[in-house]
Design goal:
With 612 residues, this protein is of the alpha/beta class.
Length: 612
């Protein structure tokens, strides 16, 4: 089978417990931060926790990828090399990396995945990463369907694409705003998320065209309706963003995408899951009930204005309905949905800001807020906290089982039992047993079937028990239960024995890089990264922005999001709103950032310099 037809649902894990829930709720793989060097410094995990997560994941043939996707200093390389080996020994199936210097270390035989921080948006860059040894490549979130098809056509490497979650307004790996203004580098895992702040939009003379709006804040990605297109285009790993998200978010979003994806995999298509087991849930997955800033398919189909969350970077949740009446201490809501005590509602107030309402009590369609807000009839309400839904998710909410068929054959002196699971893994258990003639032959057979089908809290579910007995006999339930425990134990051992280990040796090729001269945006922060580029045909490499050696005004962000376009002032659009040619963003600390508009390539640049 074509490697790209083996489809993987990849879920985030803030910690090992969240990772386990992602597996139980249907993920084929999870990605998690290690003890150090992950792009989410606040989401690190111990080696013991990662080993524990690997043990659970591998039971279902699911995988665990560890993020080491920051750029490293020369002094950190030795520690990183040691950590790489420890992660391999802990059972990690792959490492997600950004720094090319890592490829120059003494690596264990583990697959390397090219992080989204590597800014891969062209067939040429993807082909290079494939040729130098990366086994999976994350393509830029800004990629359109046509661009993904072009990348897939030019390569054979497995392609990973984000399908859900928060969007960085800058191309990943190409954002230096946080580092420039706060010293906290996104490429070092400590992004200050300045893109979620409110900004003023001014001209060179300080005249203001917008104030109080979050002009760099985007909605959240949602490609759940486009999974078939993604698979047909050549994507094999569907990635959910969210290594800082809580467990309820991961449960709900993973379950939703699992069900959506299974409907596709169950059709007459050449696709196959990469892990085992089927999940059942105590709730109905609903994407709008988890944190979201409103949804967008971003640039997947075409450029559109519906990609921003200018009013607020906070969660807006699900549409609820309009305000029908307002009393002294209550609000009547015109909604078909039931509401609950403890719900969180929100609306955009007259100042254009998102305002929250905490529901104290509900009587039918009437809510009594904890504090009464100022709002008018006709205002649209959304629910960003469904108390009843969250309560369901706070408890055990999924069970994942691997299907098994058991057959029992009567033989001289006892029985032979065979178990075969959904992956074709089989075990054989001969047992000695003194025959006792059954008083009720049908009941004896039924008892044997019922007892062998009781897999209880194990990872297995028995779909079928076949019994072949020429002379039905009675076997005590306690003895059958012992056989079942032995059979399950043998099957678990055999599954681990035959589990595929994708050990990979990273080759050292001399394939030429896609450019011969590189500036600070190559993110070469250590000598080994520079050596990598030089070995691959690059003539000159500037130091990384994080070295502090870049003092001029430079491109701090490269965005496919364009403020002009989103504000109806695109210069390519006839009859568009007119804005000055020179525009600036001013943040709450009065830092002024110049905007450049590359209209030919439909891109916006945020210009600035490193603050002392």
């Amino acid at each position: 089978m074509d490697a790209r037809n083996k489809i993987e649902l990849l879920a985030p894990a803030r910690n090992a417990e969240v990772g386990k829930e992602a597996i139980w709720h249907g993920a084929d793989a999870v990605y998690i931060g290690g003890p150090k060097f992950g792009a989410r410094a606040a989401a690190g995990n111990s080696l013991a926790d990662i080993a524990d997560l690997c043990s659970v994941a591998h039971t279902y043939y699911a995988k665990v990828y560890v993020t080491l996707n920051t750029i490293l200093t020369d002094s950190e390389l030795l520690e990183a090399e040691k950590l790489l080996k420890q992660l391999y020994e802990a059972g990690a199936d792959g490492l997600i990396v950004q720094d090319f210097g890592i490829t120059q270390l003494d690596l264990p035989p583990i697959a390397l995945h090219a992080s989204t921080q590597m800014d891969t948006r062209t067939p040429e860059k993807t082909k290079f990463l494939q040729d130098v040894g990366f086994q999976q490549v994350v393509i830029a979130r800004e990629s359109s369907l046509e661009q993904i098809r072009a990348i897939a056509k030019a390569t054979t490497v497995r392609l990973e694409a984000f399908v859900h979650g928060a969007l960085c307004v800058s191309y990943s790996g190409q954002c230096y705003l946080s580092c420039a203004l706060t010293g906290r580098s996104a490429n070092r895992g400590t992004c200050a998320q300045l893109c979620r702040l409110p900004y003023k939009l001014t001209d060179a003379d300080g005249h203001c065209y917008s104030t109080g709006k979050h002009l760099l804040s985007l909605r959240d990605m949602n490609l759940s309706a486009s999974l078939s297109e993604l698979l047909a285009a050549g994507v094999s790993s569907l990635k959910i963003e969210g290594r800082l998200k809580d467990v309820e978010y991961v449960k709900n979003v993973t379950a939703y995408y699992r069900q959506t994806l299974d409907a596709i995999l169950g059709s007459d298509k050449p696709y196959q899951r990469t892990s085992s087991g089927r999940s059942s849930y105590t709730f109905v997955p609903d994407l709008e009930k988890s944190f979201n800033r409103g949804f967008t398919d971003y640039f997947f189909h075409q450029r559109n204005k519906n990609i921003t969350s200018f009013d607020s970077p906070k969660s807006q949740g699900e549409p609820l309905g309009k305000v029908r009446a307002v009393g002294k201490n209550y609000i009547d809501v015109d909604t078909p949905k039931s509401m609950n005590n403890g719900d969180g509602l929100c609306f955009v107030n007259v100042a254009g800001q998102l305002e929250g309402i905490k529901v104290n009590r509900v009587e039918g369609r009437r809510v009594f807020p904890l504090t009464m807000p100022k709002l008018n009839v006709g205002v649209t309400l959304r629910r960003n906290l469904d108390a009843a839904f969250e309560k369901l998710l706070s408890k055990p909410s999924a069970d994942r089982k691997i299907s098994v068929r058991i057959t029992v054959d009567q033989c001289d002196g006892g029985f032979s039992l065979t178990a075969v699971d959904e992956d074709g893994v089989s075990v054989f258990l001969p047992v000695e047993c003194e025959y006792q003639k059954a008083k009720n032959e049908a009941m004896a057979v039924d008892t044997l079937k019922q007892q062998l089908a009781k897999t209880g809290n194990t990872v297995f579910v028995v779909d079928e028990v076949g019994v072949k007995m020429e002379e039905p006999c009675f076997v005590p339930s306690s003895i059958i239960a012992g056989w079942r425990r032995q059979l399950v134990g043998l099957l678990l051992e055999e599954r681990e024995h035959v589990r595929r280990h994708d050990d990979a040796i990273f080759p050292h090729t001399t394939t030429n890089y896609v450019a011969s001269e590189l500036d600070f945006r190559a993110n070469a922060y250590n000598k080994k990264a520079v050596d990598f580029y030089l070995q691959h045909g690059v003539k000159s490499v500037e130091p990384a922005f994080e070295t502090g050696k870049v003092s001029d005004e430079v491109e701090l962000m490269l965005c496919k999001h364009c403020i002009r376009y989103s504000m109806g002032a695109c210069t390519k659009t006839e009859g568009a709103r007119t804005l000055p040619g020179q525009l600036f963003l001013v943040d709450p600390n009065n830092n002024r950032l110049r905007l450049e508009f590359d209209c030919k390539n439909c891109q916006m640049k945020v210009m600035g310099r490193m603050q002392k």
